[in-house]
Amino acid sequence: MLQAQTAKLPRLVTVGGAITEIVYALGAEAQLVGTDTTSLYPLAAQNTPKVGYMRSLSAEGLLALKPDAVIGTTEAGPPVVMAQLRSAGVKVDLIASDHSWAEVQRKLQAVGRGAGRETQARALQARLDADWAVTQQVVAQFKGRKPKVLFILSHSATVQVAGEKTAADAMLRFIGAQNVMVGFNGYRPMTAEAMAAAAPDLILTSTQGIEAQGGLDKFWSRPELALTPAFKTKALVHLDALELLGFGPRMPATVRALHQRIVLA
């Protein structure tokens, strides 16, 4: 009977690591027939059929998996592929990313709808909303000096810093830190002049970025970083990219942990 019930549930393809993570959090992983290459957590998600990178999907590859629904963010594309899926009768639900707690809620609700598990999604959201409220209270209680933090994106040869209206900027605000890169939106290449002017106390980056640069020693060997106060003490915190910037169900715990490590340290 249980197998029959499971078979009737919608077949899902998820595009975005946080959305895949929510599927597992709702216990709906048996409904997954495909995920994108950013879907790496939990570990079991790495063994799901992969449909490619979220921005360069193929309609043929997706339709071959016979999904009932594709759930992703508005980064999923290209748009013509999303249109082809809808024309083929696949439900496509794309969630806007605005780097807010409401974004996490929208993802939860979309997965609940798409997976046919709205009751479970409401229960999970209630728990996470309560956890987020506690997290906000913890951060708000700190009345000391906000540390000056620089977020570095270094997954490729071009190392960039995070300005305003980025996921990194939002996370820094949520943990109670100060983003030293203001006055521009998005990401820009890191320059010596900018590093000297910004004078960050600490650098925040992803673990994958450290690995892409060849390890911590290689990361710190960049001459631009030698101009910062953070360099003198090698003040750096790194975290898995999905946990750090994914805006998924681990977000309340991640914000509390970073607040402890960066602001209260």
UniProtKB/TrEMBL annotation:
InterPro entries: ABC_Transporter_SBP, ABC_transptr_periplasmic_BD. Residues 11-265 form the Fe/B12 periplasmic-binding domain. Transmembrane segments: none annotated. PANTHER family: HEMIN-BINDING PERIPLASMIC PROTEIN HMUT (PTHR30535:SF4), VITAMIN B12-BINDING PROTEIN (PTHR30535). This is Iron complex transport system substrate-binding protein.
